[in-house]
Amino acid sequence: MKINSRRKFLFNSLALTSIPFLHSDVYGNIFKKNKLDLALQIYSFAPLIFQNQLDILDYPELIRKKYNIGAAEYWSIAFMGREKDKNFIRDLNDRTEDQDIKNLIILVDNIDLKTMANGPSLASTVKSERDEAINFHKNWIDTASDIGCHSIRVNLRSEEPDTKKILDNSSESISKLIDHSKSQGISIVVENHGGITGDADWLVELMKNINSKYIGTLPDFGSYNFCIKRGDLNLGDIESDCDNQYDKYVGVEKLLPYAKGISAKSHEFNSQGEEKSTDYSKMIDIITSSSYKGFITIEYEGAVMNMFGSKGNYLNPYEGVEATKKLISKYI
């Protein structure tokens, strides 16, 4: 036997005999990437909601029968002010149960639909504004509990230049929300949503500062979501150049250890069905190679961008969701 062959034989023998005590399932998992389950975010259908072509009550049946997806994420705007209506909540729960849908997260946006102005922020430097924002979000914690979600997503907007002050104000507000949410088993998740939260390092610091099992991240693939220095949200030009862009692949990887969900953001697709602004193969490899286990949620934003006049070849909501589902399924 040649020396190289002998070495190869000894190496292979050692590899096979050194872990004979492992159960076959454990042995297999050493070489197996984590499996992800699909969910769908109702924000993907925002234009239809605004045009009264889709009611949230019809959402469970839509995602089950059209896409055969068994988990749903919600958006506060889609409730259209009915979140405190007990009959409405009962009806939504009945329809969710009928379709065997698991409810996950409510994305909470404090926006006046008449003026499109933002309400008070949890990260505001003004305490009275933070208190108002806390009370607003407490109502959504209760709604999340009512429909069986595990989390609400919050935003942290601030014009404060001192990032440490934003950290302190945000930590204080979220901790107060957790005091309200933990008895209901509801977590508070922070998405990288541009601005200060587009800085993954700052967001990780926030997680460590709060240090609670009821706090988490919601990594989002969007380039705009990792834009640290940006102006006001402009959905008509969401892919414009950013003055301070955080690397989205590095960012998602850093946020994954704290993740309680993942937003697979999509906008536009090429002729091969690949998303133009995100390498889904690379991104999903990062996720499946991590310790994250759970749902990856389709969040198609192309129809929203088209609604606001953004230039591009965007699919309608139904087609965009289908294209995103197909792309994710290709790599998981």
Can I get a quick summary?
The protein is of the alpha/beta class.
**Helical proportion?**
40-55%
Backbone CA Rg:
22 Å
Tell me the number of helical segments per DSSP (H or I, 4 or more residues long). 12
Overall mean pLDDT: 90
Description:
- 41% of the residues lie in helices and 15% in strands.
- The chain has 332 residues and is of the alpha/beta class.
- Helix 7 (163-181) packs across helix 8 and helix 8 (200-210) runs parallel beside helix 9 (248-255).
- It folds into two domains: 1-32; 34-331, Alpha-Beta Barrel (TIM Barrel).
- An eight-stranded parallel β-sheet has the order 8-7-6-3-2-1-12-11.
- Residues 1-31 have low confidence and may be disordered.
Topology:
Blueprint: H1 3-17, H2 24-30, E1 36-41, H3 46-50, H4 59-65, E2 71-75, H5 86-98, E3 102-107, E4 111-112, E5 117-118, H6 127-146, E6 151-154, H7 163-181, E7 187-191, H8 200-210, E8 215-218, E9 227-229, E10 244-245, H9 248-255, E11 262-266, H10 280-288, E12 294-300, H11 302-307, H12 317-331
Parallel strand pairs: 1-2, 1-12, 2-3, 3-6, 6-7, 7-8, 11-12
Antiparallel strand pairs: 4-5, 9-10
Helix pairs in contact: 6-7, 7-8, 8-9
Features:
alpha/beta; eight-stranded parallel beta sheet; 332 residues; disordered N terminus; TIM Barrel
